[in-house]
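S.,

Sequence below, as promised.
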Amino acid sequence: MAKGRRSDYVPRGVQPAGGGLQPGMLEKIKKMQEEMAATQAALENELINVTAAGGAVTIVITGHQRVQSIKLDPALIDPNDVTMLEDTLVAAINEAIVASQEHSARRLEAVTGGIEIPGLF
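The prediction came back faster than expected:
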């Protein structure tokens, strides 16, 4: 503490913790937190189907970006061109992750009403 300042000193223009909240705002925030937690839990079980590489790759991924399955068109498998298959899989998995993130963002935005919460996405 600075010399000569009272322990309850609050600089001009600074609200004390919890000050300035509209009536009922704390309850709304708590309800939003509960809905966010429920939505986060639900996303773990929500599956997103993503088809990539012209339909040659199908990936099922959760709302938590966990790949559940990958199906390949047998025509995509060429033992003489493994690099092409690897590149195709990387691109398809990245596309699935983006789709999962977008799905999660939409679901969570429905709870927050579009309010950006730092560290959430």
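Residues 82-112 form the longest helix (31 residues).

Coffee later?
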